[in-house]
Amino acid sequence: MKEQNGIPTTKTQRSAKFVKTGFQIGGNYIKHYSKKLFNPELDNSQLNEDNATDIYNSLSELKGSALKIAQMLSMDKNILPKSYVDKFTQSQYNAPPLSGPLIVRTFTKLFGKTPEQMYDSFNLVSKNAASIGQVHEANLNGKKLAVKIQYPGVADSISSDLKLVKPFAFRLLGMSEKELNIYVKEVEERLLEETDYELEVRRSIEFSEACKILDNIIFPTYYPNLSSKRIITMDWIEGLHLKEFLKTNPSQELRNKIGQALWDFYNFQQHELRAVHADPHPGNFLITPDEKLGVIDFGCIKELPNDFYIPFFSLISADITKDKAKTIAAFRELEMIHPTDTPAQVEFYYKAYKEMIELFARPYLSEIFDFSKPEFFEGLYHYGEKIAKMPEFKQARGVKHFIYVNRTNFGLYTILHELQATVHTGTFKPQV
Q1: Coil, strand or helix: which one is 84?
Q2: Which residues form a coiled coil (predicted)?
Q3: Which residues pair with 11 in a beta bridge?
Q4: Which of 223, 228, 58 is nearest to 146 (CA)?
């Protein structure tokens, strides 16, 4: 894969890249509709493919928050056409890396030393490159280390990038800027936290200590003295990412073991710690040779305040969802039903959201759940496709916490489905 010698960092440079991409997309539409004049039956598959390629190539050069949003969108198969999902999935752990000289300059700027002066050995060729940073292999005192380096200018460009991305989001989701602002602000806050590597080191140490009671999960040791606001040094964990792991045709027993570790990891955090690793994409996990789940990134943590946790997870209980008044009361607390809604609107949203909650809660309502069941995921995707076409959902509903909590739980479900795992879901229950 071709290396990058630099990243557009100024607002002008990054804006110019978005404008150029906009012209490319415009050209794709002209080409598409010219062909459609001669072939009225032509579908949008090639148009989507061309647009996805142009957008991804642009975001890959920009890196940072723009590419991170592509990564987030790739995890929700209901939002984007398949060609976008396929292309944006590359951002999970396979974006174009930065060149060696730029890496050396980054170390010199942050530590006043080159990588070779800090470690016994340092490989300038990255092992993995994603949205916010890339990972290099190093050695020190006989220990193999992973060194995560943040791309230059990422933290400083988040706010301006989101302003540039907003028009695309408004068009994609069909919502007004005013309605989306509360959610954009939530994303901005989490992205700013993700770019603070000193915060990530502290959280990683804290969460790995809290989660060490869980079976079949391992965490790297972190080294604050070899880390900074833009660089993290931690133990190297040997293992395979999910895609490579599945290619080895693992046994059902092993699939279940890794799936159980994932389920326990996420539900222990949500229900015991009330804060959760909110970035469940496959690039953040490794399956080790001794059949354990390695967790290698704690950059995105979402805290669950009581005024969200209690009404949301109370909906897991059949006692609540069987009681229409209590269910509507919880929906109101979560701003899924608004004070200004008419009785007809209340009834509409009650039925629509109850269907969603019943789907979401299904794994919790039995002691054992088989995530390989196609009908469960077909139900989820069908529901997502259905509401995406409803004009009633072209407005902002739900408190800001839904963005990352939904991303976390449906991301977890998706990974468990890819694993085809059967798990015991009664290990860590909602506490309401």
Answers
A1: helix
A2: none
A3: none
A4: 223
Two structure tokens written together for 279: 């970035």
CA angle 98, 14, 231 (to 5 degrees): 40
Nearest residue to 133 via CA among 111, 166, 164, 106: 106
* Dist CA 419 CA 258 (whole Å): 8
Instruction: Indicate the burial class of 132 (C-beta count within 10 angstroms; 0-12, 13-18, 19 or more).
Output: buried
46 CB contacts (<8 Å, ≥6 apart)? 32
Backbone angles phi, psi at 318, to 5 degrees: -65, -25
**Amino acid, res. 243:** K
Which residues is 293 bridged to in the sheet? 217, 287
Can you spell out the DSSP letters for 391-428?
A: GGGSS--S-TTHHHHHHHHHHHHHHHHHHT-EEETTSS
CA 308 → CA 147, 190, 270, 299, distances in Å? 36, 17, 12, 22
pLDDT tens-digit map of 68-97: 655 555 545 554 555 555 555 554 445 557
Looking at residue 261, what DSSP letter applies? H
Distance CA 332, CA 317 (A): 17
Residue 16, pLDDT above cutoff 60: no
What tens digit of pLDDT does each residue of 277-315 get? 998 888 899 999 999 999 998 988 999 999 999 999 999
CB 380 within 8 A of CB 413: yes
Residue carrying structure tokens 């340092």: 122
Q: Rounded distance, CA 381 to CA 189, Å?
A: 29
Q: Which two tokens stand for residue 143?
A: 């220990």
Q: How far apart are CA 149 and CA 117, in angstroms?
A: 16
Residue 30 burial (CB count, 10 A): 10
